[in-house]
Amino acid sequence: MKKILLTLSLTFGLTQAFACADGGGEDYYYYNLFSQTLSAAPQYSPFLLTMDNPFFDADQNQKNENIQSWQKTLGISYEQAYNLVFKASKQEIDLMIKNGKSSNNNYSFATSDFVKNNKQSLLYLSYSKYLEPYMAFYYIDNGEWSYAVRPEKNVNNLNYKKVLDVLKKSWNAETDKDLKVRYGYQLVRFAHYFHEYNDAINYFKMYVESQGVKSPMYFYALDQKGGAERGLGNYIQANYDFFEVFSHSNDRKLSAYQSMKVTQDLDFEKMLAKAKTNEEKNDLYLLIGYNDFSNPVAAMKNIIANDPNALQARVLFARAINVTERQYLDQNPGGYYWDNSKPEKKPTDLFLPVKTSDFGSYNTTEEENAPQGFQINELITLAKQQAEKTTDKEYWNLSVAYLNLLNKNFSETKNYLAKVNSTSKEFQQQKKVIEILLEIFEQKKITDSFENQIMQKYSSILNYEYPKLSEDEWTYSTTDTQKMNLKNVILDVLANRFYLQGDKGKAFLIHNEITELGSNPSWDIINDLDKLDKKSNKTVFEKYLIDAKVKSDYYDMNDEKLKNIQFKLSDYLSDFRGTLYLGEMKFEQAKKEFEKIDQKYHVSPSSFYSYDYDSRTDKETKTLMTNQFDGYHNISSKIFGYNKIECFNCEEDFVMATPYNSDFSFIKPAMSKLDLTNALIDLVKIGKKKDDSGTKANYLLGNFYYNTTSLGYYRYLLMFDQNNSNGPKYNNYDAEYVKSFDFYYKDFGWNSNYKDNFSISENYLKTALNQTKDRELKAQILFALSKNEQGRFYIATDPVLKKLRENEYENENKILAYKAVNYRTYFKELKQYSDTKSYKETKSNCKYFDYYTSNY
């Protein structure tokens, strides 16, 4: 147990190892398993790779250089310096100076000796705190409206000349060069914000540069000078100033880069000619590589040529690894296949991880699949060379190990993992993640023994679920996302292996709850799940899958909680097979399946609250609905009737009519699927008679099979849904809407594979029509046949209609004309029964009835 706990603590202790996966952008659709922050360059962290945000999150461990400078000057801790500079008020500083010490416990370090020795620094801080509320750029909008949020105060609220006089006098009186530079910074900033750009540039030269001190405040002041140069239109000089700030500061890199990006005439290649040192050249190559999303490697090679140990090379390499992850660890490598006019591109290597296109998924265009930038072997070679040349080899050895893992060169992964001996917690955590993935990735075939092994070692990972967020939280923490990412990668690979070795049931259950089978029925999966259910010596992993996935989730509106209904796998499979058999008119086989089921079985609640909002009164009514269809019980006898009107969200009694149900006493008002099957069997037997009862039995059978198509009120019954509310199962998608299952069954319920078959209903109705001479009954049957004929039109694939539907808007009249000629046969015949009560009743319920019976 201790060993398992150690594994989990190492694995789940990762810091910033995974991209946040709580949204729907580019950073969501892949698994980030290699920490970019291993590059150990916190000052460059905003330039690591993200595609959903302008910049990567700043490293929280990156300290403020201004505070570090004060820490050194004042001889206090970083935290004390931070509190003094950013938290202490001007009044508190003034009291320290006046009383010779601080009486505030938060500044207990400000003893009499401290104040005496640092009085000039405190005087500077006092005046800077006076200025700070006004240190905002004075925007001149010329009366035009602007989206920009303007601060309440800005430099224009101060007297320009008076402030300059105070700062200049203070600068002249000061003897400490560091403090002189600080006063100089205030002069440059104040003039810049006041739009006195020439003054700002001159003040930089006179009051900052003249001191020959390249302290952090020098570069803060240079940043302000760059802004003034830009204000004068000196863009090339401004960009060079901003770049100097970028290259020589740690905490101003991002703002300096942003300043460059919004300044005209930015050309990093030209700036290279003016670079004075290798460090500056390396920073420029970093920015060139940063702006080349497809290939940071070329710029990285230039950095390495200058200095193999350069941090900039590690930053670009971290980005390159992240690009590679997006290619090899796509969350859905099979993609979604839409275009039926082109052959689906099939992968040659089916064992995950595999490289998709450089933009994810196999089913992209040839142009998208063309090699982009760099390849994984190039990265591996480069990292190996770095591992030989650099003094700090740990990062490069770990990178080689991980890239070989993605490339499925597992022996190399092991060799280079063995070379990683860093005691750094982050390196040890990353090494552990690679070891776990290596153990999973290596398995070409998952045996019972291996299933038990992974549950023993990684059950905590596999059982992990996101915690419930509080009301004011919208995203999961980095740590929570890390845990879920690792779990999902493991499950993806296991599902992939099961899929390839023919264990389709387990492959399905890894990514889907059992009820997702209802979206896309597959006998292969059903039969394999049946084998799994009957297996006597199930592995711990198989029991875990069944326990986790053989259930039905629903939201309890009363308790406002997500709940689930557990049931036996054998019951669900029998229900599933039986329902499919009903759709195929295999009634005896359906009956055998339903008889196997525990008759208390259900997959959804039979009672729940329905909420109805009235916009006119702004009130919501709550109604308890009882005896509702629960997936098996409470099937209404009205399923054998006909719909008087077209309305799916209307009450059943308002929509459905059942003129002949009472002729068959065996039809119960509310039925289970077994009851329904028995009723269907009896109706089929009676339907063979040549009398009135046979006609009516066939009419009811025809109604049943129409009512369970996507056009029928009870369309949910044979499509494994809970109600008739509109959804993807009722759309009759054509063949171009295809979900690819090349690697596993992830997103199995994404597209439903149901196609209406109106011929079953039509065949029963035609038999009934031929059996009877009763004009009223004939009118009813012909109307039922007319509805089926309309249904066939909606799903018709004949070439004439297909061509017309390519431009449905312009061809609307032609389509209607074609429909009238080819799909109004029964409406035309029905016109002959206009004298019947049935005809007149239908006409009163359907406003388009006259049109249908007159246009053919």
Radius of gyration: 37 Å
Shape: elongated
Structural class: mainly alpha
Spatial ordering of strands, largest sheet: 1-10
Low-pLDDT sequence parts: 1-23, 359-363
Q: Report the sheet-strand fraction.
A: under 5%
Average pLDDT: 89
User: Helical content, roughly?
Assistant: 40-55%
Distance between the termini: 78 Å
Largest sheet: 2 strands, antiparallel
Number of strands: 10
Number of helices: 38
Structure description:
- With 856 residues, the protein is mainly alpha-helical.
- 52% of the residues lie in helices and 4% in strands.
- The protein has 38 helices and ten strands.
- The strands form five sheets. It has a two-stranded antiparallel ribbon. A two-stranded antiparallel sheet has the order 2-3. Strands 4-5 form a two-stranded antiparallel ribbon.
- A hairpin with a 4-residue loop joins β4 and β5 (619-625).
- The protein is elongated and about 120 Å long.
- The protein starts with a helix and ends with a helix.
- Residues 1-23 and 359-363 have low confidence and may be disordered.
